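hey so u asked for the seq, here:
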Amino acid sequence: MPSADRPRRRTRRMRRTVVVCATVCAILGAVALQVLVFPPLDEPDPVDVIVVLGRPVPERVNVAEDLMAHKLGATLLISVDDYGIDDASNVVPCRQSRPYPVICEVPDPFTTQGEARMLGRLAIEHGWRSALVVTSTYHAARARLLFGRCFDGRLLVVSDGAGLSLFEGGRQLLYQSAALAKAVWTPGC
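ran it, structure tokens below
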């Protein structure tokens, strides 16, 4: 009769494996939703600098300029690329005068970590003690982590409110999950 027990044991092992895999997937999915879809965001408050993370897409720039118009920032810092559609010549506040200081700078490297380092360096140069970062919702948790490592002042993070297509949302979920894991496991600024 031992041969009759083998299929039952296999079935039980298979069920346990399925339950464990489903549980792990559910936990990872819940964490991803909390961190990438519903991250903690801040209410805008007056700061020394408002930072637009790259790509300087119109949604992000418009949110930052609206915050500046409401006197919530003293300086506008826009992360730009050194070529192509994201260079300073293609970003309206970088090429047109504003009633407030605008700094358009290329981070080195052109990554979130490079942007965080750029803010840390400029904060020392300009004496900034508070910053508000404007980025996409799915990027907010990673931006908060990296900027918090490089900037010693009060840090606020807000969303640009831009939506994503289903395809782009799935792509960003995978990319941002991997990028956030890398950021968590890579210490320092």
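The chain has two domains: 1-38, 47-185. Residues 165 and 171 are 10 Å apart (CA to CA).
lmk if thats what u needed
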